[in-house]
Amino acid sequence: MKKKVFSAMRPTGPLHLGHLVGALENWVDMQDEFDCIYGIVDWHALTTEYQNVEKISHNIIEIGLDWLAAGLDPKKSILMIQSMVPEHAELQLMLGMICPVPWLERVPTYKEQIQQLKSKDLSTFGFLGYPLLQAADILIYQADVIPVGEDQVSHVEMTREVARRFNYLFKRVFSEPQALMTQAPRLPGTDGRKMSKSYRNEIRLSDDPGRIKKKIMPMITDPARVKRTDPGNPLICPVYDLHKVFTHTEGKKWVVEGCTSAGIGCFDCKKLLLEGMLPKIEPVASRRKDLQKDRASVIEVLREGSKRAREIACQTLDKVRQAMQLKY
Q1: pLDDT (tens digit, 9 = 90+) per residue, 308-323?
Q2: Is the CB of residue 90 less than 8 Å from the CB of residue 50?
Q3: pTM: predicted TM-score of the whole model, two decimal places
Q4: Helices and strands per DSSP (H, E), number in the chain
Q5: How far apart are CA 54 and CA 74, in angstroms?
């Protein structure tokens, strides 16, 4: 039997190029090797966006469009919405009876978001408990493999600890999932910071070639290279960080030699970047445009996927109830 994979995204806004090369391409490749369940986790979005709920349902459809356009296939994978599988919440509740509070507070991303999102009131039960909800997301499907970047490994480790504690206190129900470290290049946005919708520096999967060019051509480069005749340093240039992902080896060599000798200008450098970047994103944007003509079919894919996911979740929850002697 194939091993099970679970991974998810929060519906907090349109997906961008960083999502494509950092997650979606890996997800697409995994479809033939694993039994994959990919979730749009709207309850997780509420942990930080509970005051801005009006956009969540719209964002769910937008993510569905991006997923299908990027190559996720509902015939190969289950594409689901978290809140349409209420067993996630029930399992979180039962796991919450045995999970020590310090386990939640020590998760690195929990502490980081408290610091980074100071403008929001995150002193809520929902935000404190979101690492346990993530554990429930994984364990409800008995997932074997969790594709993650380096910053998410701690969540998988906590999930393993929760599974061990449950199995020790009651009886063995859960296997311990393994983190699968994925190659996820950290893409810079158009202002040099990490590409993020929060910074409004992203290149969206829905952007057409003209819009992408308008975003790339004025992009920040080596700040010390003021004039065309000044030599530059590609190692501190965010445009070159994009070249590392989208440009072939000879092209990168040409950029380094031309930039450091002032043999080429930033315009030439960005023009070559677009030659590698546009063929990567144009097919996705084109498929997305076609899919957008029938948004109802996207909704149906997510509804059907949620039904299939719930069948699996109910089987796991039945075992949990039996182990905790809550089967009457």
Answers
A1: 999 999 999 999 999 9
A2: no
A3: 0.93
A4: 15, 5
A5: 27
d(CA 247, CA 260): 18
d(C-alpha 325, C-alpha 26), whole Å = 40
The pLDDT mean for the chain works out to 95
* Residue written as token pair 């948004």: 295
Secondary structure (H, E, C), 122-187:
CCCHHHHCHHHHHHHHHHCCCCCEEEECHHHHHHHHHHHHHHHHHHHHCCCCCCCCEEEECCCCCC
Give the 3-state secondary structure of residue 6.
strand
> DSSP state, 36?
E
Q: Side chain identity at 211, as an amino acid letter?
A: R
3-state secondary structure of 41: coil
The CA distances from residue 215 to 145, 155, 212, 228, 239, in Å, are: 37, 34, 5, 20, 12
Tokens 């290279």 locate to: 225
